[in-house]
UniProtKB/TrEMBL annotation:
Residues of the Aromatic amino acid beta-eliminating lyase/threonine aldolase domain: 47-423
Name by which UniProt lists this protein: Tyrosine phenol-lyase
Tagged with keyword Metal-binding: no
Family: Belongs to the beta-eliminating lyase family.
Cofactor(s) this protein cannot do without: pyridoxal 5'-phosphate
Residues the record lists as N6-(pyridoxal phosphate)lysine modifications: K258
GO MF: carbon-carbon lyase activity
């Protein structure tokens, strides 16, 4: 008998999907310039490009949308959203935004000045671009083990406090606008941060007057790993651990398209009332009035309901279990994957998968394109393309990790779908020598992985 526990939900609505023939998939990837982002979704069989905004909302979320207050000012739906954020995340000041990068934009516009230095536990593309557009320079202060896919640690997303202290000594605390804490770390395959590490960071940043800002998009997943792996937290609820994480920080940017199951939405949470007043002024300029921030009332209702559902123990258990199932199947077949398996995705080590393709020929991008052709499965490159170019030298950045991310939407796919994904990856693994490298045909300036075009090279 399988030890895979059944999902804590049943299906009430279905969306048809279909598998194109291999010749059709080959034509589609050429049309998309070998960029999985540019594929039409109708041509994708199993879509693991992202877990953001593509989750299945519950019947209660859909019902909540029907009572959305669409008032331009003072929406009752905003009041419910703000009260729910305060209850579960604990930030007294809540500023709605259309999604997480809207919150990033507002935060960095307020805090970052030219010449300043922005530490974080591994970069995230949109976060780093916002920092750089405001004149800042990103510094990676994650532990060294996070850059090695084969290293197994329970909290591989932890900040190296020695690295952070060294940076503070070099540039001065006044030149560090804030510390960006991803928990878990997306670009490292969903690796979590321990509560002990957050405590150490709180003490260090408080000593130097540096704000500690949480990327809370998948913080519920991080809370799960703390409950399961960290001494002293096994008997705490997910809701209690989430609140404890947030209580140790000065603010958070939130994409409600992840943990909160919503199709759109986000918020900026702060403790500083004066900073929140400034943020509301900027939200009016760039997002919408400070009581809707780019969201419809129905979306705010869906987010509020989703927050309540996200901390349910059976929901998060099923979520982590599903990701682990796919990762374990691939690892058992010898496929090199990021270890340990994270909370929202399985990441294939493309450099190890395709050692015959040099980094300058973008093995992760080539592997993502080949996986689509093999099985109609859409993943996304998380390596040299995502890292972009150094704004000063114009040279390609070459991160240690060259990954293909398979991000699993919440409550969308069944175990059978994941078996199809596993079989496609394993089949490609056995025929990996046939995959060719790629070159740029069109390269956008910002976040190039979204819109770049490529062509194969011999």
């Amino acid at each position: 008998m399988s030890n895979y526990q059944a999902e804590p939900w049943k299906i009430k609505m279905v969306e048809p999907i279909r598998q194109l023939s291999r010749p059709e998939r080959e034509a589609a990837i050429v049309q998309a310039g070998y960029n999985t982002c540019l594929l039409d979704s109708r041509d994708v069989y199993i879509d693991l490009f992202s877990d953001s905004g593509v989750n299945a909302m519950s019947d209660r979320q859909w019902a909540a949308m029907m009572v959305g207050d669409e008032a331009y000012a003072g929406s009752a739906s905003f009041t419910r959203l703000a009260d729910t954020v305060r209850a579960y995340y604990g930030y007294p000041e809540v500023i709605p935004t259309h999604q997480g990068r809207g919150a990033e934009h507002i935060l960095n516009r307020m805090l970052v000045r030219p010449g300043q230095h922005c530490p974080g536990n591994m970069y995230f593309p949109s976060t780093r671009v916002h920092q750089e557009l405001n004149g800042g320079a990103f510094h990676d202060v994650i532990i060294d083990e996070a850059h090695d896919p084969s290293t197994v640690l329970p909290f591989k997303g932890n900040v190296d406090c020695d690295k952070l202290e060294k940076l503070i000594a070099e540039v001065g605390a006044n030149n560090i606008p804030y510390l960006a804490l991803g928990a878990p770390v997306n670009m490292a395959g969903g690796q979590p941060v321990s509560m002990a590490n957050i405590d150490d960071l709180r003490a260090l940043t408080s000593e130097h007057g540096i704000p500690l800002i949480l990327d809370a998009a998948r913080a519920v997943e991080n809370a799960w790993f703390i409950q399961q792996r960290e001494a002293g937290w096994a008997n705490a609820s997910i809701a209690e651990i989430l609140r404890a994480m947030c209580d140790r920080t000065d603010g958070a940017t939130m994409s409600a398209k992840k943990d909160s199951y919503a199709n759109i939405g986000g918020w900026l949470g702060l403790r500083d009332a004066e900073l929140a007043t400034q943020a509301r002024g900027l939200v009016v300029l760039f997002e919408g009035l400070h009581t809707y921030g780019g969201m419809a009332g129905r979306d705010m209702e869906a987010v509020a309901q989703g927050i309540e559902e996200s901390v349910a123990e059976d929901n998060i258990r099923a979520r982590i279990q599903q990701v682990g199932y796919l990762g374990d199947r691939l690892a058992a077949a010898g496929v090199p994957v990021m270890q340990p398996i994270g909370g929202h995705c399985v990441c294939i080590d493309a450099a190890a998968f395709l050692p015959h393709i040099p980094r300058e020929r973008f093995p992760a991008q080539a592997l993502a394109a080949a996986l689509y052709v093999e099985g109609g499965v859409r993943g996304v490159e998380r390596g040299m393309i995502s890292a972009g170019r150094d704004p000063d030298t114009g040279e390609n950045r070459t991160p240690n990790l060259e990954l293909v991310r398979l991000a699993i939407p919440r409550r969308v796919y069944t175990q059978a779908h994941l078996d199809v994904v596993a079989e496609a990856v394993i089949s490609l693994w056995h025929n990996r020598d046939s995959v060719r490298g790629l070159r740029f045909v069109h390269e956008p300036r910002y976040l190039r992985f979204f819109q770049a075009h490529f062509a194969p090279v011999d």
